[in-house]
Amino acid sequence: MTKSFDDNSRNIYLEENNFSNLEYNGMNVGEMVVSEVSVKFARPYIANYHYSKTMPDSTKHVYAGYYGDKLAGIIVYGMGSGKNQYLSLIPNIQNGQYLELTRLWSADGMPKNTESKLIGESFKLLPNEIKLLVSFADPSENHVGTIYQATNWFYCGMSGGGRQLITSDGIAKHTRLLGIYKMRHPEYKDISNEELMKIYGWEYKETSGKHRYVYLLGTKKEKKINYNLIKEKIMEYPKKGYSND
């Protein structure tokens, strides 16, 4: 289960790592090399350094940027919270044509534009079938999506609010974790969600919406067609201090 994997990798990393591979070595942003890596490799860094402290269950592709032998950052793509978030943008989008950018992290002390370079290079490594990318910035973390604005994503307003699970150690998780636990633990399949939450000490938390950003990939023709489908949803970029109240 994701939480136990995250907890274990976090503890092992802290016990064994001397952090020397995160020290900036003076190379230029243009010298960054980006390659695909495994979830197993990336998980300790996301579990320790990303504000969410979790690697999503739905992860499909993970890329790491390097300055020589020094790790500069990690970017994670997955399925996100469900197909509807893509269909609401492009109604005829097909399975296998969309992903959510779910995690982005760069080590402290890396040069300006490290994350922008990592995003741009990762686009080149994604499967050619991918036409639509979505990502979200959480205003509850004081995020407005500055990095997406800097890399020319389209801003398509706020997502709807909803519920999150808050674990016993205060980490926010998607409510689909309840179904995942029931699937992986047959002994829980006949109990209610509330009973399962009580076992693990989880609680519900009502959440506000998040800033939604969209990026289009594909040929010039494909991007033009999809742009015409989303153009009425495109809005001006929000700034720090934005409120949707």
* SS elements, strand count: 10
Tally of separate helices: 8
- What percentage of amino acids are in beta strands? 25-35%
Gross geometry: globular
- Main beta sheet strand tally, sense and closure: 7 strands, mixed
According to CATH, the homologous superfamily of the largest domain is: Gcn5-related N-acetyltransferase (GNAT)
Q: Which structural class matches the secondary elements? A: alpha+beta
- The chain-level mean pLDDT equals 88
The neighbouring-strand order within the major sheet is: 1-2-3-4-5-10-6
Task: Give the tally of structural domains.
Answer: 2
Unreliable residue stretches: none
Terminal CA distance reads 37 Å
CATH architecture of the largest domain: 3-Layer(aba) Sandwich
- Rg over alpha carbons: 19 Å
Report the CATH C-level class of the largest domain.
Answer: Alpha Beta
One letter per element, helices H and strands E, the order comes to: HEHEEHEHEHEEEHHEEH
SSE layout:
Elements: H1 2-16, E1 33-37, H2 39-49, E2 59-67, E3 70-78, H3 84-87, E4 98-106, H4 114-125, E5 132-137, H5 146-150, E6 154-158, E7 162-166, E8 172-174, H6 177-184, H7 193-200, E9 203-207, E10 211-216, H8 220-230
Parallel strand pairs: 4-5
Antiparallel strand pairs: 1-2, 2-3, 3-4, 5-10, 6-10, 7-8, 7-9
Helix pairs in contact: 1-2
